[in-house]
Amino acid sequence: MLERCRDVLDYITTHGIKKGVMATTTGVEPPKTSVTGSKRRSRSFADVPLLSADLVSKTSIPHGYLSTHVDVTEIVNEMEKLLAEGTELCLTTIVIRACVLALKVVPELNAISDRSTTSSSPVVNVAMYVPSQGRNSVFGVLRGAEKMTMKEIEMNRQRIEKNVAAGTLSVEDAEGGTFSVCNLSDLNISDSAELVRPHQLATLTIGRLHHFLSDGQSSADRLKATLSFNNAVISEDLASKFLESFRFLLEHPLLLS
Fold first, then answer.
1. Per the confidence metrics, is the pTM higher than 0.90?
2. Which of 40, 71, 72, 243 is deepest in the core (most CB within 10 A)?
3. Which CATH architecture has domain 52-256?
4. What is the mean pLDDT of the segment spanning 86-94?
5. What is the DSSP string of 95-160?
């Protein structure tokens, strides 16, 4: 053992190896080594804020929900008949017309509300959901829908959808809604309870059409309609009355003209 120690000392002396200096601590932590993984794992991510309208709606409006199934066989047959004649009539237009008439039966749902007061609106400004490629939920407003015929509602619907697609929707066509309508049938969604938009009291949502065969002979088309409403202002009785009126109108399309 002693011989090995002498050999080591002789080696150090012969080769001029000096004693190493120990690093002193300064109280500052050494920089941390960053570890980079694959390109996929090292991608940067950005925080995406919640949409202000959705955030305000869900946090400040107590929501209630009621749903009903609607037989729209006659409406579908009429739409197909018009299409064969060269006239296209969108289901959204028919739903808006039915909502406008149902709001005449239950005008309490057509109002502007804040945290302290609720004011009935003398006009029906329908905020219509328009599917878009962006992340935001886009609503275009049909102002004075209570004065519009079915044809005028269809024309304004087309105009708003074109403006949304072109990114040219004006402020006037984007704000001031008193009631909202969401048609999710084109998105292949059967059932959805949408949020009540800020300063409004209710939103009606319809899902996609379902085709049923009855007794192997007759067929029927049905959809599900869901009313989301401000449960602090609108009672379930009023919401149910509106939904029943809406269903009755859609199942008797002659009343929509």
1. no
2. 72
3. 2-Layer Sandwich (3.30)
4. 93
5. HHHHHHHHHHH-GGGSEEE-SS-EEE-SS--EEEEE--SSSSPEEEEETTGGG--HHHHHHHHHHH
